[in-house]
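We modelled the chain as a single entity of 109 amino acids. Its sequence is:
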Amino acid sequence: MEAKTPKDFFENVLPLKFKPEKSAGIDVVAQINITGPVGGNWIVTIKDQKIQVTEGTHPSPTLTLKMNENDFMDLVNGRLSAEKAFFTGRVQFRGNISVALKLRDAGFL
């Protein structure tokens, strides 16, 4: 299933991609900031093997990802790897990289 916009990804695609069995032990609040005409800010909370997504900004997230909507859409639709996005500077990341890698295994990135 390919997401058409960041909002479509967070509301429709991510809940289907999320793998609760791979999220055991993860307790994270991720702030995702997408820049561009159809961008926005989302808070993704993973705790107790459940995922919750809300629009908005969290005052003290565990980690923060910021990227433009085109790169984000390429990332979530499999046209850009998380590693390439990170190493080419297409994503601004703040937080614990090992937590981010666990999120990838859980189907988040």
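As a brief sanity check on the tokenised model: The chain has a mean pLDDT of 92. The domain at 6-105 is CATH 3.30.1050.10 (Nonspecific Lipid-transfer Protein; Chain A).
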